[in-house]
Amino acid sequence: MTELKIFSGSANRTLACEIANYLGVPLGECSIKRFSDDEVNFQILENVRGQDVFIVQPTCPPVNENLMEMLIMIDAFKRSSAKRITAVVPYYGYARQDRKDKPRVPITAKLVGDLISAAGTHRMLTMDLHVGQIQGFFDIPVDHLFATPIILEFIQQLGIENLTVVSPDSGGVERARAYAKRLNAGLAIIDKRRVADNEAEVMNIVGDVVGKNIIIVDDIIDTAGTMLRAIEALKREGACRLFAASTHAVLSGPAVKRIVDSHFEQVIVTNTIQLSPEKQVSKIKVLSVAGLLGEAIKSIHEETSVSRLFV
C-alpha cells in the first residue's frame, strides 16, 4: 500500500496539524514563500513519488491567494509523481455563486471546480457545500462531509429545553429539518428576501417561536447580517434564548462586533476556517472537525467506505 502523506497550505495549518496528529502521521515537509511581487514560491521538501498525498487548504479569506496557493501545490505534487492527489478543502470558496441568478454573471463555483480538476487533482474532500449540487460541477470524485454530528453533540450537551430549530432562509430548510429531527425539536423558517449582496430583509416567520428557545442553523456566517435580522424578527415574535450554529465562520467585516452586541448567548462554529485572535471572542464557540476529516482521509487512503461518516 502506498504511504499516506498530509501536507498543508498556509490557510489553516493548525487544522492540518490536528488531522495529522489524529492519524498519527507527521505533517509533510514543504516550503511556502512569496517572491517580492507576491507570487507563490512552493517546494516539496521530501520524496512523494508513488505516494497518496492529501493537501489541506480551505479557500477562505484571502480567497484568491489561498486558491492560487492550492493550485500551485497540486501542480507541484503532480510533477513530483505522486500516485494520487486529494485536495482537502474544508471550506470551498466561491460556492455561493452556483447559478446564474441574474443576467451576465459567472458561475464561479463551477469555474473553481474546473481549476482544481485541471491542476491535477484526483479527488476532493470537502465539508458542508453551500448547495450539494456543486458536487456535480466536478469531473473527479467528491466526498462531501457534514459537520452536523459534531455540532449536534455539542448542542445536546447544552441541554436546551423547549427548543426550536430555525432556518434563516428557504434554502436551508433541509439542514434545519435534519437538526430538528435529531434534537426532537420544533422547526421554523424565515422568509427572507435579499435586497443586496450580504444584505437581507426578513419578511415573515413560518412556525411557532413564541416562548421558544431558538437555535438558528446555517452553513456560512459571513457578515452576520442575515443572523442579525433573523434574531430581531425572532425577538419581536416572542422568542426567548437565542443560539446559532454554522459550519463555516467567515466572519468578515462587522460580523464579530454584530455577534458580540447581539442577543445571542452563543454562536457555534467549526474550525474549517482558522479564526484570527481578534475573532476569538467568548460568544463564539469553535468545534474541531479534525477527527471527522481524519476518518474520511483514512477511509479514502484504505479504499473503504466514506458513507459511514455522512449524516
How do the strands and helices of this protein lay out in sequence?
Elements: E1 4-8, H1 13-23, E2 30-34, E3 40-44, E4 52-56, H2 63-79, E5 84-89, H3 108-119, E6 123-127, E7 142-145, H4 148-158, E8 163-167, H5 173-183, E9 186-196, E10 199-206, E11 213-221, H6 225-236, E12 242-249, H7 255-261, E13 266-270, E14 284-287, H8 290-302
Parallel strand pairs: 1-4, 4-5, 5-6, 6-7, 8-9, 8-11, 11-12, 12-13, 13-14
Antiparallel strand pairs: 2-3, 9-10
Molecular structure report:
The protein contains eight helices and 14 strands. With 311 residues, it is of the alpha/beta class. The strands form three sheets. A seven-stranded mixed β-sheet has the order 10-9-8-11-12-13-14, sandwiched between helices. It has a five-stranded parallel β-sheet with strand order 1-4-5-6-7, sandwiched between helices. A two-stranded antiparallel ribbon has the order 2-3.
Keywords:
alpha/beta, seven-stranded mixed beta sheet, 14 strands, 27% strand
